[in-house]
Design goal:
74 residues, mainly alpha, 0% strand
Amino acid sequence: MREYKSFKEIDRDLKLLKLQKEIDKERILLNYNQTKESLSPKRLLKSAAGSIFKNALILKGATKVLGFIGDKWK
């Protein structure tokens, strides 16, 4: 526990704590808004569509490679 030697030190620390509290509050609000935006139906659909498209491309490429390798073993 800290020992203070003057009211000036106490006031300084109280101001710092108040500022830190405001910063933390703004961070929480920012994180909340970012989370809310990332979970919006539009964003979720866009993300899902992108994942499906990406997986389809990977599957198509893998199928071609595996088909090519399979043809060499015949």
